[in-house]
Amino acid sequence: MENILVLNGHEYYKHSRGELNQTMFDAIVELLEPHYNVKTTVLKDGFNKEEEQEKMLWADAVILSNTDL
């Protein structure tokens, strides 16, 4: 396993701005980058469906960082 896709799936709400989720997302990426090829997506920033499909095909593993679940 060399390629990891990390998704930040938090949606912004007035009562929950996503600060904890962003902190966890940043820590995951920081820990993985020295050892793996890492690509990221922050869903609230928008995304291109075709690009995300390519990332999923590229990835050996996907990590979803989402404290809303």
UniProtKB/TrEMBL annotation:
Keywords: FAD, Flavoprotein
PANTHER family recorded: NADPH:QUINONE OXIDOREDUCTASE MDAB, PTHR46305
Name this protein carries in UniProt: Uncharacterized protein
Obligatory cofactor(s): FAD
InterPro entries listed in its UniProt record: Flavoprotein-like_sf, NADPH-QR_MdaB
